[in-house]
Design brief:
- It is a single chain.
- The chain is an alpha/beta fold and 300 residues long.
- Helix content is 26%, strand content 35%.
- The chain contains 9 helices and 19 strands.
- Strands 1-13-10-12-11-14 form a 6-stranded mixed β-barrel. Strands 2-5-4-8-9-6 form a 6-stranded mixed β-barrel.
- The longest helix is centred in the N-terminal third of the chain and has 20 residues.
């Protein structure tokens, strides 16, 4: 083995060691995670204001030789807000100062709230980002120039950006639809939240201004995935009489991640014993709730 190959091998081993070190939370025992509080199942909830992603063709048509800079970096890696703005013109109204986000995309896409859409007099569908076929159209104006966009306006489906590690820890996968409880002045649970998984993402949930106003969003608002009874297996099994003087209800939760909300769902059935897989992770709040309700926990 020559010196160059040896260097490559050493670098590869070092990277693997670094990864294993960073991924220790995945490899630690469930008890270690609970005791150390290493895992927080909540995530930041960010408000996505109305904005536009311009294609290179439309960017050139509207701004031509104008030098375009970066106003600020966004939470998702590589995404930014440009220092330019556009105006949207619809059948019934106009929206000015629409933020332009970069980098450029293959197709122009505009993301609005339902309130914005009604102000313009258009009816865009609720879609995942990138799914613009057959969506609403609008006129885009800037610098005295205008483009008629025949399709590309959507109301973005509320979603969570996750890395693969984030998804594993929460027991979900790409394109799952989940429920999320969001904190705010008027906390509520959002249904049909799309999970988007990529190693290019940073953990965060995105909602629009209509949704933010509904929950009374605050800058520090956070969300947690909640699981309803359809995702919990309940097996009522009375114990033998010689084991207890009264019949105790026993249940089984078959999930990688077990949250406080899931345990609370079980309390409705008044179980006294909760069985979970040995590899399952209990959040700190779930552990506290189990202790408070004096529920016996068994790893099977």
């Amino acid at each position: 083995m020559n010196e160059e190959m040896m260097k490559e091998l050493i670098l590869k081993i070092m990277k693997e060691l670094d990864f294993n070190k960073d991924s220790s939370i995945l490899e630690a025992s469930p008890d270690e995670k609970v005791q150390t509080g290493a895992f927080d199942d909540s995530f930041q909830v960010e408000v996505s204001a109305r904005h536009i992603h311009l294609s290179k063709e439309h960017l050139e048509a509207l701004f031509k030789d104008q030098e375009i800079g970066i106003k600020k970096e966004l939470s998702q890696p590589g995404q930014y807000q440009a220092d330019i703005r556009v105006t949207l013109i619809g059948p019934k109204g106009v929206l000015q100062n629409i933020a332009v986000l970069g980098p450029s995309r293959n197709n122009t896409q505009i993301e609005l709230s339902l309130t914005d859409a009604r102000a313009l007099g258009i009816n865009p569908p609720v879609r995942d980002s990138g799914d613009t076929k057959g969506s609403a159209g609008v006129i885009i104006s800037a610098n005295g120039r205008a483009i008629e966009l025949t399709e590309g306006v959507i109301i973005a489906k509320r979603h969570i950006h996750m890395t693969p590690k984030d998804a594993v820890l929460r027991g979900v996968k790409d394109k799952d639809l989940v429920k999320v409880r969001v904190e705010g002045d008027r906390p509520l649970i959002f249904d049909d939240v799309l999970v988007r998984v990529s190693d290019k993402y940073s953990l965060a949930m995105h909602i629009d201004f209509d949704e933010a106003n509904a929950v009374g969003h605050r800058p520090d608002s956070r969300g947690r995935i909640v699981f309803d009874s359809e995702r919990i297996k309940l097996e009522n099994k009375p114990l033998a009489k010689e084991e207890t003087s009264s019949e105790l209800k026993e249940c089984f939760i078959e999930k990688k991640l077990i949250s406080e909300e899931m345990i609370k769902e079980l309390v409705k059935s008044e179980p006294k014993i909760v069985n979970i897989p040995k590899a399952s992770i209990l959040t700190p709040l779930a552990v506290d709730f189990i202790k408070e309700k004096r529920i016996e926990l068994k790893r099977v």
